[in-house]
Each structure stands twice: as structure tokens, then as C-alpha cells.
Design a protein that fits this description.
The structure is a single chain. By secondary structure, the protein is of the alpha/beta class. The protein has one domain. 43% of the residues lie in helices and 15% in strands. It has five helices and five strands, in the order E-H-E-H-H-E-H-E-H-E. The protein has a five-stranded parallel beta sheet with strand order 2-1-3-4-5. Helix 5 links the parallel strand 4 and strand 5 (111-113). Helix 1 (11-19) packs across helix 5 (88-101). It is globular. The two termini are 19 Å apart.
Length: 117
């Protein structure tokens, strides 16, 4: 599973994930900081990545819009607010587990909340 972390998640998380052998990148690393959410989602889809974000409301709305417009979409993983932004290692471990539980990636337009355990 390829992951693209939006700008609300520290690039330290993608660094940790790569050290674990995962395919992960962050908006910080691609230069898409402050890009519109729609651009972030389109970039993730073009790269074949599920997007990871705590920005639930905006990305759920965009996922519906992408579905209705038949735009590519590789899945949305929402990070609950109960996982602190400074918990880089914890978030990386949870994303690693999520990816292992989804070895073939996510179905297009799927929205899942990252389990906090």
C-alpha cells in the first residue's frame, strides 16, 4: 500500500514508515505545502497512493465529489484526533498495521478511520 500524508502530518512519519520498508511520502516532501485539498487528493491518486489526513470533513466531501466526477481515487485514511500530532512513532506504527491489514491497498473511494490501537 502506498501512502501520501497530507501537510497536517509531520514528514517525520513518512520517514519512519520508509525505514520500516513502506512506500510513503508527505506533502512536505513533494512541495505541495499549502496546495488546495483537491490538488493534494489528485496528486495522491495520480501516484497510486491512499491519502492520510486528520482533515476529516473536507476530504470526505472531496471523496464524494471525486466519486461523482469519476476522478481517480485510491482511498482515504482519516487519522482520529485522539492520535496526537506529535506522536510520530505511534502514528507510523498504526499506519504500518493498517497497511498490513490491507495488503492489496484500498478500494477506490473507500473512506476508513485509522484504528487507534
Amino acid at each position: 500500500m502506498k501512502l501520501y500524508l497530507d501537510e497536517d502530518i509531520s514528514p517525520k512519519v513518512s520517514e519512519i514508515l520508509r525505514k520500516k520498508g513502506m512506500d510513503a511520502t508527505s506533502a512536505h516532501e513533494t512541495g505541495l505545502i499549502e496546495a488546495a485539498d483537491e490538488e493534494q487528493l489528485a496528486f495522491a491518486a495520480a501516484e497510486g497512493c491512499a491519502i492520510v489526513t486528520p482533515n476529516r470533513d473536507d476530504f470526505i466531501t472531496l471523496t464524494v465529489q471525486f466519486f461523482e466526477d469519476l476522478k481517480p481515487h485510491e482511498g482515504l485514511i482519516i487519522v482520529p484526533h485522539t492520535i496526537p500530532a506529535y506522536g510520530y512513532g505511534r502514528l507510523a506504527n498504526l499506519l504500518e498495521k493498517f497497511a498490513k491489514d490491507h495488503p492489496n491497498g484500498m478500494e477506490p473511494y473507500t473512506i476508513e478511520f485509522l484504528p487507534s490501537k
